[in-house]
Amino acid sequence: MKRIGVLTSGGDAPGMNAAIRAVVRTAIYKGMSVIGINRGYNGLLNRDVYEMDLRSVSSIIQRGGTKLFSARCLEFKEEAGVLKGVQACKDLGIEGLVVIGGDGSYRGAGDLSAHGIPCIGLPGTIDNDISSTDFTIGYDTAMNTVMELVDKLRDTSHSHDRCSVVEVMGRGAGYIAVNTAVACGAVEVLCPEKEYNLDEIIEKMQASRKIGKQNFIIIVAEGVGHSEEIAKTIQAKTGIESRATILGHVQRGGSPTVRDRVLASRMGNYAVELLEKGIGNRVVGVRGNTLVDYDIQEALKMVKPFDDDLYDLTKVISI
Ligand code: ADP
Ligand code: F6P
After folding, report:
1. Ligand 1 center to 107 CA (angstroms)
2. Which residue out of 39, 66, 105, 132 has the highest number of ligand 1 atoms within 8 Å of its CB and is therefore the one to mutate?
3. In angstroms, rounded to a whole number, what is the distance separating the alpha carbons of residues 131 and 56?
4. Could you tell me what percent of the chain has a pLDDT over 90?
5. Atom 9 in ligand 2: which residue has the minimum CA distance?
6. Pocket around ligand 1 at a 6 A CB cut-off
7. Catalytic site residue from 127, 129, 140, 293
């Protein structure tokens, strides 16, 4: 392969820039040229592209967001959109493509691969909801951001003997919620993978209050939602002043952590090595500390286990 493309798609995630940098630098190191495609599949269809040289990715490893911008492209979900993308790759001389994004982006990469454009998917999302990898790029940074913010909330919550109900991102998954609940000393975590009983939570809070617990942190995954309502119910039934905080998009920004930078750099490099060998229709993941790759369709069928032990841990150590 002489020329490859790279794009970021779906929700942005810290570490996407580190991945782009690794793709560009590895490809040029190996004698290939790289076309950067702006705003995901939209940029491919609109041919909003430019050649990326070594210096085009200078000083981006530490930056959140994505230098290539990101977008959701509805047209690409239709066969006609995919065929238009295939034609664009052919016209632009793009022989292989690295797609950094989530499950939806993988589907687009699978469609392009099926039409003869070898694609490699890299898992870029804060949600960690991609089954073909233990960790996604951006997840560690987002969790650290949540932890910092909840620590700040705890200061004020503690001063007022309050309960803080904190809603965190994760789309339909509770990975951010359950990990940050443990890291922030939450008394409870509500996530979509598990049923919850608010009356039981309230009883537990009342019992803890009796033995001197001053403040309470409850983490709610956005897939559960209703954090305002939950806070109001807790306050009404316990008399403990409660406030809901929805952390929102601040969780998607910020400088990537060392783990995300290293993961993104390794994965970007690995993706180009696959394309160099003429291999496409694969997604890259990490199992333990080892990089792996899977057929895209196989990867999309995988189911990610939920960490029940971590979920139970919150209940034991936060009484
Ligand atoms: P993510 O990649 O983070 O899961 P989306 O689900 O929004 O985010 O997908 C990103 C983009 O991938 C979509 O805007 C669309 O361009 C493309 N995409 C999503 N689903 C499909 C699909 N079924 N077929 C082809 N392309 C898709
Ligand atoms: O997938 C990343 C994510 O931030 C989810 O956690 C959240 O549900 C969603 O994207 C928000 O999407 P948008 O940026 O379109 O509001």
Report:
1. 6
2. 105
3. 32
4. 98
5. 171
6. 9-11, 40-41, 72-73, 76-77, 101-105, 107-108, 111, 125
7. 127
Q: Nearest residue CA, atom 7 of ligand 2?
A: 171
Contact 149, 230 (CB under 8 A): no
Query: Percentages helix, strand, coil for the chain, rounded to the nearest 5?
Result: 45, 20, 35
Q: Crossing angle for the helix pair 16-29 and 258-276, nearest 10 degrees?
A: 40
Is the domain 139-253 a CATH 3.40.190.170 member? no
Query: Ligand 2 pocket, 129 CB below 6 A?
Result: no
Where in the chain are all domains bearing CATH 3.40.50.450? 3-138+256-301
| 199 classed as catalytic | no
Task: Please give the angle made by the CA atoms of 225, 73 and 59, to the nearest 5 degrees.
Answer: 85
How does pLDDT run across 145-190, given as a tens digit for each residue?
999 999 999 999 999 999 999 999 999 999 999 999 999 999 999 9
Output the CA 74–ligand 1 centroid distance in Å: 8
Q: How far is residue 102's CA from residue 112's CA, in Å, rounded to a whole number?
A: 16
Distance CA 64, CA 303 (A): 28
Strand-pair partners of 7: 99
Portions of the chain given CATH number 3.40.50.460: 139-253
> Nearest 5°: CA angle at 147, between 158 and 135?
155
**Which pLDDT tens digit goes with each residue over 51-93?**
999 999 999 999 999 999 999 999 999 999 999 999 999 999 9
CATH number of 3-138+256-301: 3.40.50.450
Burial of residue 262 (number of CB atoms within 10 Å: 0-12, 13-18, 19+): middle
